[in-house]
Design brief:
Distance between the termini: 86 Å
Number of strands: 7
Radius of gyration: 31 Å
Helix content: 40-55%
Strand order of the largest sheet: 1-2-3-4
Largest sheet: 4 strands, antiparallel
Number of helices: 8
Length: 313
């Protein structure tokens, strides 16, 4: 028996059979320790940083290149065909900056802001990022590591935003026509009217003079009426919204409220939009004493206050 055991032992020790391969080890990405809410960046701070990182440099690059092209052209330092080339390069360089830096901003913002749903909505409204699946969104430059981090940050959207009240905002906000804005525009239109009358009386430019006189006179009167209009145009509080063109509706009756921009360049206009039972509001706010950013913030704030009251009942 002892001999047999010995031979068996020696045979095992001398075996040339290969050792089994080690099992693959799956290493999960370590969970980040949740940040304290007090250490998080506010939506306003993130949006402001986004404009400084992305939009302001984009405008600087574009207008800087266009200005340089015009200067070189007027100094005869570039040929005539250099003008279109310079304009195209201005757009290309600006777009490359946006494509690269917007990814960096996304990675920072969606990792450091608690209310990522509000952040994303505000960023789209303020032309910082494009809507999901937009053809322009697909031009963002993202490395493999960037894509991996963005996928991981999608987990932040699985939690609802926390309501953060702003005690500096009153219980109700009433929005009127802007006196200052409309008076300035009225003065400009009066200038057009004056030029038109001068052309009619002192020159032979009757067509241009007539157009300037009609346009200047009409819009001068229109802006004067708006500047002196003291009727509330929008009333918004934690109960609901009423506008100059729509009756009061409570928050539970309202859906999809936001301020949107339509058009581009000088033809961009801003509208308060929301759906209510059997209808929808689409109110232009260009001449009011508010803007797209402030009114969108008010919509979020007052709906949040309404939801908070409902929860506490």
């Amino acid at each position: 028996m002892r001999g047999l055991n010995k031979v068996t032992l020696i045979g095992n020790l001398g075996s040339t059979r290969q050792a089994p391969k080690p099992l693959a080890v799956i290493v999960e990405r370590p969970r980040k320790k949740p940040k304290n809410i007090n250490d998080m960046v506010t939506v306003d701070e993130a949006i402001s940083k986004g404009h400084k990182m992305v939009n302001y440099p984009v405008m600087g690059i574009m207008f800087g290149n266009i200005g340089l092209t015009l200067y070189l052209g007027t100094q005869k330092l570039i040929p005539t065909w250099g003008f279109p080339v310079g304009f195209v390069l201005a757009f290309v360089f600006a777009w490359l900056w946006w494509s690269f830096m917007i990814t960096k901003w996304r990675l920072w913002a969606f990792d450091n802001v608690r209310n990522v749903h509000e952040l994303k909505k505000r960023a789209i409204q303020e032309k910082l990022i494009w809507a999901d699946n937009s053809i322009f969104e697909k031009t963002e430059i993202r490395t493999a590591t960037d894509k991996e981090k963005l996928i991981y940050l999608e987990n932040n959207f699985k939690q609802d935003d926390l309501f953060q009240d702003d005690l500096t905002v009153s219980n109700e906000t009433v929005i009127y026509y802007s006196k200052g804005k409309n008076f300035v525009e009225m003065v400009v239109m009066l200038g057009c009217l004056g030029i038109g009358i001068y052309l009619l009386l002192k020159t032979d430019n009757y067509i241009i003079g007539s157009i300037l006189s009609i346009v200047g006179g009409y819009f001068s009167y229109k802006k004067y009426k708006e500047a002196t209009n003291i009727e509330p145009q929008i009333i918004i509080n934690d109960k609901g919204i009423k506008t100059i063109s729509t009756d009061f509706y409570s928050w539970k009756e309202i859906k999809n409220e936001e301020v949107v921009s339509e058009g581009s360049g000088k033809h961009t206009h801003y509208y308060l939009t929301y759906d209510y039972p059997d209808g929808a509001e689409h109110l232009q706010i260009d001449d009011y004493d508010t803007d797209i950013r402030n009114l969108n913030k008010l919509l979020i704030l007052y709906r949040g206050r309404s939801n908070k009251k409902t929860t506490n009942r």
